Amino acid sequence: MRVLVIILAIFLITSCDDGKIKVSVKNDAENKADTDEISDTDEEKNDDTVDSVCGNYIVEFGEKCDGGVKNCEEIDAELYIDSNAGCKDDCSGWDTITCVENPYECGNEVVEGNEECDGNAELCTQIDPDKFSGGLAKCLDNCTGFDTVTCYLIEVPDTDAGDTGNTGDTGDTGDTGNTGNTGDTGNTGDTGNTGNTGNTGNTGNTGNTGNTGNTGNTGNTGNTGNTGNTGNTGNTGNTGNTGNTGNTGDTCGSVEFDGTSGFVEVVHNSVLDLSGSWTIEAWVKQYDNQEQSPILRKGSVTTEPAYYLYGDYFYYSYDETPHGGYYYDSSTNEYVSTVTVPSINEWYHVALVRSSSQLKIFYNGVLEETVTTTNVPMNNTENLFFGTRQSSTPSFFDGLIDEVRISYFERYGSDFTPEKRFSADYSTIGLWHFEETSGTTAYNEVGSGLDGTLKGGASWKSECVDTYAVPDPEFVDTVGSSEATSVTSSSMKGNIYSVTTAKTITEIETYFNFSGSDTAYIDIYEAETLDGVYSNKATYSVAVTAGYQSFYSTGIIDFDLEVGKYYYIGTRWSGNSTTYYFSSSTSSGFTTSFGEWERGYNCYDYSGIKPDDIDYDSYSVGGIAYYQRITTKNP
User: Fold this and answer.
1) What is the rounded CA–CA span in Å between residue 292 and residue 320?
2) pLDDT for 242
3) Alpha carbons 166 and 334: distance in angstroms, whole number
4) DSSP E strands: which ranges in 425-565?
5) Which of 102, 365, 378, 608 has an alpha carbon 20 to 30 Å from 484's alpha carbon atom?
6) Which of 205, 202, 206, 204 has the alpha carbon at shortest distance from 162?
7) Which pairing describes strands 84-87 and 94-95: parallel, antiparallel, or unpaired?
8) What confidence tens digit (pLDDT) does each residue in 301-354 have?
9) Phi and psi of 616, rounded to 5°?
10) 611 with 568: CB under 8 angstroms?
11) In this structure, how many other beta carbons lie within 10 angstroms of the beta carbon of residue 15?
């Protein structure tokens, strides 16, 4: 047995060599022993280095997918609107050839297909009223939603009143003392000390009742136990901050600008970058018009304004009526002006409105000018100013400004009745009521970080719009030009117009150069159809001056144009040779405030007697437009 143990020990020692195990393998080819070494310390192979196998339906290292399909909108919601994409054969990604592409255009200001928005903005409270307290969110560049970085999160006040202190433990009742031996009555025991009263808290723990003292031998009364400490009162929680109280709307207020140094400044915010459709409006009251009267302007000394709105300004010999516009590059701008001249010390409302293709201006709710434009404002990072033109030569408004509102859509398309106090809605970027009465902060009702600061000679005024006059604007349409001339005598020349909007003609002017001092006549004829018979409806005499090239006028008249009818307006004279003026470039036509210019019309054999009727086919219908100016107003 001892020999066997020794042999086993020798075998174990000789079989171990530096932690390696020798394994003898029979090699059939060479008929000799091969030796493979297997290290006890070999590390396990890293799973990350295992070669991926495309086609095993397991997404492994380096693969984007492995079999299966994916919804195309999940791959790219901007490019695709429907269908599914299968994994490519090499597992490198999804094969989107089966995806339905998005046919809609992000950036055309029309929400289409799967777009959440397109160029517009949304009140943050409309997006999530439980999450946001204010602000305005603009549409993301890819039209997939709104950028809420400009939204204000609702602050939840800390209403925790603090934990109520624990009620103290009731003290243990002391043990009743042993009754003494019968005999002489022992001394009466000392009364125990009364326990210390604990600190009073909200409701602290009630202290433990002290043990009742043992009754002494021979009748001695034990000491009364100490009263337990009353528990500490818990800390009362902090009360949340009370929110600012909004204006009730009962206060009538505005800002008064001194005309020399006063203005309100609003720090730039990206929500003020206007594009697409928008509206800028305000109520103003001018104390004078002898200086530039800036109402609103987004720009400073170093750049042209992104957009602007001015009041009335009498400049040397002409009146620059209220106007507004915007710059679309460093030196070029689009603008419109009112026809109406406001009265000093009277409130008026002015609104600048841009749609996708037009820029309009309204005075007291009446549309006064429209221009066609596809250019968009050249946005900048300058601050927004009320009541001043901050430039190298600054100017200041003299009077009152109230109810300034900027909206992210075309708020007015036709005549309307302006509200005296505006309200905010889903499209409002900024709304300043100017009703604070004290301090220097003009709060933006929308709460989108656009509070203004009164500076210089700007102060609160307890006055706002009470009454205003609705204007009866006049529209002046010019047809033809003086680019071409001709000379004739005893003739009648003019233009035929179709009427699509009812108007009242208040003046007709025609451009001539008469060779003699005589009397000319301006006639108005009416027909049911373009090529019908025209009947005379009105005749106005015009005194002429020989050799004087000018517009000759009917003076103030009152003639109603009816929708759906056609009118020939011509000037006739007899005798003297007269130079008349016209435009031969009529391919684009002429649009008027009441309809369309149809064509020029020449009664070339006029003999000096006014015809009661004119047959369209009896005279020359020309492709030229005779030079006329027609003033109308709303009926």
Assistant:
1) 9
2) 40
3) 74
4) 428-432, 441-442, 452-455, 458-461, 474-479, 484-499, 503-514, 519-527, 533-543, 549-553, 559-561
5) 608
6) 202
7) antiparallel
8) 777 899 999 999 987 666 789 999 999 988 899 999 999 999 999 999 999 999
9) -50, -40
10) no
11) 9
Nearest CA to 461 among 397, 374, 536? 397
99 secondary structure, DSSP code: S
Residue 5 backbone dihedrals phi, psi, to 5 degrees? -60, -40
Residue 240 token pair: 């949340």
Model confidence pLDDT, tens digit, residues 575-626? 778 999 999 888 778 999 999 999 999 876 666 678 889 999 887 777 899 9
Give me the residue label for tokens 């009143």: 161
Amino acid found at 188: T
Length of the chain as a residue count: 635
What is the rounded CA–CA span in Å between residue 313 and residue 291?
A: 6
Lookup result for tokens 């009465």: 437
Give the predicted TM-score (pTM) of the model.
0.50
Tokens 């927004």, residue? 384
Please, is 145 exposed, middle or buried when counting C-beta atoms within 10 Å of its C-beta (0-12, 13-18, 19+)? middle
Residue 284 to residue 293: CA distance in whole angstroms? 10
- Over residues 537-554, the pLDDT tens digits come to 999 999 888 888 999 999
Of the chain, the end-to-end C-alpha distance in Å amounts to 136
Residue 503 · residue 632 · CB < 8 Å: yes
The token duo for 195 is 């326990």
Residues with Cβ < 8 Å from 454, sequence gap 6 or more?
A: 255, 262, 264, 440, 441, 442, 460
For residues 230 and 200, the answer to whether their CB atoms sit within 8 Å is yes
Residue matched to tokens 């305000």? 282
Positions in the chain whose pLDDT score sits under 70: 1-50, 156-250, 316-318, 448, 604-608
